[in-house]
Design brief:
- This protein has one domain (26-350): Endonuclease, Chain A.
- With 351 residues, the protein is of the alpha+beta class.
- The chain has helices at residues 2-8, 11-19, 36-39, 48-58, 75-86, 106-114, 116-122, 135-142, 223-227, 239-251, 269-284, 315-318, 332-343; strands spanning 27-32, 63-67, 92-98, 125-130, 206-209, 213-217, 232-237, 258-263, 296-301, 319-323.
- It is globular, with a radius of gyration of 21 Å.
- α6 crosses α13 (332-343).
- Strands 1-7-6-5-2-3-4-8-9-10 form a ten-stranded mixed β-sheet, sandwiched between helices.
- β2, α5 (75-86) and β3 form a beta-alpha-beta unit.
């Protein structure tokens, strides 16, 4: 606290680390749900921020770029994205989120994994899951907390997130890095990896709509954000800021930073169609989703290829499937993820 007060009173520090690299924006609005959101949800002003975010996304015309650590949609969010996808000129929906290898929220990830077909087909999502050794995150970390003298953390413990700034002029001094969601015990560590090296994870919650409106806040578009948590954030109506935030999120979708989620190619067309039909029914069951064959999997780019969208006709010629849980070693946490996929749909609202 004393150090923070010193820095706040130091005009030189503020100029170097805040003012010199700030941008003046147009209209900025701060919204927050009230504590009455849980006790008295019938009061509209209690859900002010949640309602405003939903209205903002529902009005998208060309594009929604969403970054969230937990891709579990609330009922209202599902309705909005389904309606957007059904429009004659549906906006592009880009989602940057965590992979199993970069998250410690196994139960939440399991439900994201469970509903991949819904997200890809019914909502038209382009999903990119962060790699645990994302090059962009590693570059950002190199400039963060340069004065820190702490020892190198355990390889299995996440150490940073892609919300960190990406160049030395914007670095945050004295930033603590205790993992994706704060300091955790061993039980909350992410699953062990097949690869070695420092692990990174994503915890940003940001949206850019039609390249002109940006939101940075705490809302995850999940049921907890809609109904339980008191959410807050700022909405910035400024194209320059929106462009910079969009560029930051889109960098996190590049092949060196993320795997692409795409449909599996049919090896035996008739059998694959039958499998998908059974999988669709199993996915809708509140419990006992035991069908092991999923609609989509993770893909990585082939050497020499340029990044392509899943909708591009040449996608499967330039990308190779790398499995449902790339870089995640067999472990109790992987089994727990599969267990939650099969039996955890009933607890979506509290995850």
């Amino acid at each position: 606290m004393y150090r923070a007060q010193q820095e706040a009173d130091d005009a030189g520090w503020l100029r170097a680390h805040v003012l010199d690299n700030s941008i003046r924006t147009e209209n900025v609005e701060f919204f927050s749900d009230l504590p009455a959101k849980t006790d008295k949800p019938q009061k509209k002003n209690a859900l002010q921020f949640t309602h405003h975010v939903m209205q903002m996304v529902a009005g998208a015309k060309q594009e929604v770029v969403l970054q969230t650590p937990y891709l579990v949609m609330s009922g209202r969010a599902r309705e909005i994205f389904e309606q957007l996808h059904e429009q004659t000129s549906a906006p592009r929906i880009v989602v940057s989120t965590n992979s199993l290898a970069s998250t410690d929220a196994f139960a939440v990830y399991a439900l994201s994994y469970k509903h991949r077909k819904l997200y890809l087909k019914d909502y038209g999502f382009e999903i990119y899951e962060m790699k645990p050794h994302a090059a962009d995150a590693a570059e950002a970390n190199a400039f963060v907390s340069t004065e820190s003298t702490s020892t190198e953390p355990d390889d299995d413990e996440p150490t940073d997130d892609t919300a960190a700034t990406r160049d030395s002029s914007n670095r945050f001094v004295h930033t603590e890095t205790h993992g994706l969601l704060g300091s955790h015990g061993k039980g909350r560590r992410p699953a062990p990896l097949l690869s070695e090296g420092r692990r990174f994870g994503l915890h940003a919650k940001s949206i850019v709509i039609d390249r002109s409106i940006a939101m940075v806040g705490s809302h995850n578009f999940d049921p907890r954000s809609d109904h339980y948590n008191t959410e807050a954030g700022v909405i910035i109506y400024d194209q320059r800021f929106a462009d910079q935030l969009r560029e930051s999120i889109m960098r996190d979708t590049l092949p060196e930073n993320a795997w692409v989620i795409a449909p599996k190619q049919a090896e035996v067309p008739v059998l694959s169609d039958i499998s998908q039909a059974i999988g669709s029914v199993s996915e809708q069951l509140p419990l006992f989703d035991l069908w092991p064959f999923r609609y989509a999997t993770s893909y990585d780019i082939k050497p020499g290829c340029q990044p392509l969208r899943v909708s591009d006709p040449g996608f499967f010629g330039c990308y190779v499937p790398v499995g449902d849980f790339p870089d995640s070693a067999a472990s109790p946490k992987l089994l727990y993820t599969l267990f939650m996929t099969a039996f955890g749909a009933g607890v979506t609202g509290v995850l």
